[in-house]
Design goal:
Chain lengths: 202, 183
């Protein structure tokens, strides 16, 4: 690569489709329009040398519009450059172009996103569920899906039922406190008062 | 502090042998039920249904330090048709649940089931959309072993409990009863 900064070159080439930019501790993120995502990925691989797709993940901004966001982690093994691409997907379509024709590794990543979040990838060669079974009617990683699950039944394949949460879900509380402050399971869920000394920091 | 005595054997069960040292090695008087139970309980062939970290402890139980063969259960068969006791060791996901059931159905009678660890017994810490909340929703469990994962000693203790249970069974009488009901 002739240029030391492929990210600037990407910005110059796709200026009109890049909607935002963020840098955090040396990691560059670009927000791009969904319509240009495939072209940008192709350009990033062929011209800028991003030959390694590290990961694809999806985010559910439940309550916001557009609801979903895709995150692509790219890496250039030749140049040692990392780039994160983000694109928002609206709930109405739940559809976006596949990048599995650019990086074959995207095949299973996109199947996982489809399985867990319910986003469909147009042009994907084999868009099946990867973790849950075929016929399972829900997408469990969506924010409006309850942690304890929902009943379902695919005869002969699998069934599912609601799990008893027994006072949960036990989510760690973000705090600087001790384990007993941080962990709800270390606290009493019911009426029994907890001695004050266990709730305070030493 | 008084030590509570726990009987090693189910006392209502028929004693395995009437043992006479004078004729030891030549004749042992027993009941057919007792003999059958004695043979069954001391040569349990496990079907290791290792699904998560409990399977590591199951492996430890069968290796030299803990040596499950002291209890006659060392013949881990990965073929359900040759097994007596299914040891469900680990988290049973819904995706795996019907496969476990199918393997259980392929085991010939008489058969027993040990639910090893919290997950197999109750779903454990996985109160989740993906995990069956205890294998007893699908197959009958004889012995539950607590722990996450249980140590090999706990598995051996569970195995001894199962042996006690088998010693108390009325194999021949049950078989006759089943035959009469069938006729």
């Amino acid at each position: 690569m002739s240029s030391p900064d492929p990210i600037s070159r990407l910005k110059a080439a796709f200026d009109s489709t890049i909607t935002g930019e963020n840098a955090f501790r040396g990691e560059k993120s670009l927000s791009v329009k969904l319509s240009a995502l495939h072209d940008i990925c192709l350009h990033a691989r062929d011209t800028l040398g991003f030959d390694y797709l590290v990961d694809i993940s999806s985010v559910d901004h439940f309550g916001d519009e557009p609801r979903f966001e895709m995150v692509y982690e790219l890496y250039s093994l030749k140049n040692g450059v990392h780039l994160r691409l983000k694109a928002v997907v609206s709930e109405d379509s739940c559809e976006l172009p596949t990048v599995s024709d650019i990086w074959p590794t995207a095949n299973w990543h996109e199947r996982e996103v489809y399985d867990m979040m319910g986003l469909r990838f147009s042009g994907h060669p084999d868009l099946r569920r990867i973790l849950m079974w075929e016929g399972y009617p829900y997408h469990p990683l969506r924010k409006d899906f309850p942690l304890e699950g929902k009943p379902s039944d695919v005869p002969g394949i699998a069934f599912s039922d609601v799990a008893p949460l027994a006072g949960g879900p036990f989510v760690t509380v973000p705090t600087d406190g001790t384990t007993q402050v941080r962990e709800p399971r270390a606290r009493h869920a019911g009426e029994i008062p907890r001695p004050e000394k266990f709730l305070q920091e030493p | 502090m008084a030590i509570r005595k726990i009987p090693l054997r189910n006392m209502s069960a028929p004693s395995p042998v009437a043992y006479d040292s004078k004729i030891e090695g030549n004749i042992v008087f027993t009941q057919v039920d007792a003999a059958i139970n004695w043979m069954r309980s001391n040569s349990l062939w496990p079907m290791p249904m290792g699904l998560a970290c409990c399977a590591i402890e199951l492996m430890a139980a069968s290796s030299a330090r803990f040596d499950i063969s002291r209890f006659g259960a060392e013949v881990m068969r990965f073929s359900p048709r040759q097994s007596d006791v299914m040891i469900v060791a680990g988290t049973v996901t819904y995706k795996m649940a019907l496969s476990v059931k199918r393997i259980w159905d392929q085991m010939p009678e008489p058969k027993w089931c040990i639910a090893m660890g919290a997950c197999a017994s109750s779903g454990g810490m996985y109160r989740s959309y993906a995990v069956l909340q205890g294998i007893d929703h699908l197959i009958p469990v004889d012995v539950y072993i607590s722990g996450c994962p249980p140590r090999p000693e706990a598995l051996l203790d569970g195995l001894m409990k199962l042996q006690e249970k088998i010693m108390g069974e009325h194999a021949l009488a049950d078989q006759k009863k089943a035959l009469f009901e069938k006729a």
